[in-house]
Amino acid sequence: DIVGTARPDEKAIMTYVSSFYHAFSGAQKAETAANRICKVLAVNQENEQLMEDYEKLASDLLEWIRRTIPWLENRAPENTMQAMQQKLEDFRDYRRLHKPPKVQEKCQLEINFNTLQTKLRLSNRPAFMPSEGKMVSDINNAWGGLEQAEKGYEEWLLNEIRRLERLDHLAEKFRQKASIHESWTDGKEAMLQQKDYETATLSEIKALLKKHEAFESDLAAHQDRVEQIAAIAQELNELDYYDSPSVNARCQKICDQWDNLGALTQKRREALERTEKLLETIDQLYLEYAKRAAPFNNWMEGAMEDLQDTFIVHTIEEIQGLSTAHEQFKATLPDADKERQAILGIHNEVSKIVQTYHVNMAGTNPYTTITPHEINGKWEHVRQLVPRRDQALMEEHARQQQNERLRKQFGAQANVIGPWIQTKMEEIGRISIEMHGTLEDQLNHLRQYEKSIVNYKPKIDQLEGDHQQIQEALIFDNKHTNYTMEHIRVGWEQLLTTIARTINEVENQILTRDAKGISQEQMNEFRASFNHFDRDHSGTLGPEEFKACLISLGYDIGNDAQGEAEFARIMSIVDPNRLGVVTFQAFIDFMSRETADTDTADQVMASFKILAGDKNYITVDELRRELPPDQAEYCIARMAPYNGRDAVPGALDYMSFSTALYGESDL
């Protein structure tokens, strides 16, 4: 009717279109109805699973409480400390290992209950009522009984352990204190009888005196323990302790040893003080020698290190600073020689005293290891290093003068070439976005620029030669310019790339204009619109800039999902490589081409009616055809038979099932 007629009848067209609409609309309704039923059934299945989980968890927890309370209420005492401690350890295992998981189960039970009630309320279902004796309150009451039994059991265990400890505490206390004291006194008598001070130096004598004073303090501190041992032994005698003879013998031995330690301590102090006075005179001289020799030796070592240090300088100012510091150092050498002679004089005085009084000296100077021979050797080495340093500084000064000349030569050229490159870049940018004259005029202008740029290359090559000399001289900075050779190279490469790319863009614009018949006025309009939204003058439009441009041109691109999808489609056209920018050429090509729903019982019944083909009942085959297998079987198992006059064998009542889902009848 349509193809074979030059002008089809309007009513016939409307009839055909209406038929297509009703056909597809009916299929959509069936799919929507099936989805709604799936959603409602999924909620009901989830709620039933939560109910079963609650019942099982509550039963297990109550059974564990019933078995645990009799164990905690058992108060049968034990006869030994070991047995009572085992009971205490069992109780601690219960507190650490067995109870914490049950505490977690109790908490999870309450969370599941509250979550289930909330889900039932939000899905218009009736509240969940647990089985008899399994309410949250019942579980809390049983838990309170468990904690009460647990508290009484712990108190009973601790009281029993205290009772058993009290029986043998006193005897164990004596043995412990006596063992500690005997361990402390072991070897003390032999230590007090040593003659180590006879060959010691003064510093060693002073150290021995300090050590002896510390021992005397330690001895006085142990006086209290000896008195406690004697008091405990006396108390054990008064209580007729069965092993009193051994206790008394051990106590008497401790007291006799204590008296002997006191006498030996006094005797050793007197010997140490006599030896100390004998060595003080020599020690004072040793100390003075060490105090003056150490800093002088450090000065010489520092001088040798500085004189041999390999310096690295990069400017004339740095080498001049090193030369000034070296002259200042040479001015200090006469005073240093006087100090050296004074130090050697102290050592000679010590030698005279030792020979005169025949003092038994053990070793050399205890305050320093620096000998007169070492001082003389280092002093001679310093004197030899001074002229070598003079020569090295003179050679470095000449080298830095040559480096400074290279810096100035490079800086003078770089300070001209760098701004020239920047200026050319800016001029090319202005030419590429200006709208004066035709595209051919812009192309000719750009080619003249390209020729002038290529003619500038010899100056770049000359600068490269100067840079090579700077690198060979190991010059790393140049205060005469902010430009480096790398900056110049990058700028030169960008300049060549920019002029070539800009010429290519204008040539492409000419090809586009000629191929699509775009007038010069239209090209100017496109360029004006493009430049207006090119806020950063980069020559390209970013996504947001391009979007604003499209909106200004009348495109309906909102901030909703539909608008974002439309914008993404357009971006895929103008930016197929996904670079995130829109060039002017792509812009010209483009310009030339061109909710929430809620469920109720009535809605579920209406959905079932659509699946049933407007019948008041639904069959098993229809459910299995329209719904997923698990949810179809769920409905079949719970729907009551339909008993209406129009019923057929196997008909199911979806109306009562729908009301039961929302608690309006029994499921």
From TrEMBL:
An annotated Gene Ontology molecular function: calcium ion binding
Residues forming coiled coils: 40-67, 205-239
Pfam families: EF-hand_6, EFhand_Ca_insen, Spectrin
UniProt keyword terms in alphabetical order: Actin-binding, Calcium, Coiled coil, Metal-binding, Repeat
Chaperone among keywords: no
One term under GO cellular component: plasma membrane bounded cell projection
Superkingdom of the organism of origin: Eukaryota
InterPro entries, per the entry: CH_dom_sf, EF-hand-dom_pair, EF-hand_Ca_insen, EF_Hand_1_Ca_BS, EF_hand_dom, Spectrin/alpha-actinin, Spectrin_repeat
Residue ranges of domain EF-hand in the record: 521-556, 562-597
Record has Ligase as a keyword: no
PANTHER family: SPECTRIN/FILAMIN RELATED CYTOSKELETAL PROTEIN (PTHR11915)
Name of this protein: ACTN1 protein
Species annotation: Todus mexicanus (Puerto Rican tody)
Name of the encoding gene: Actn1
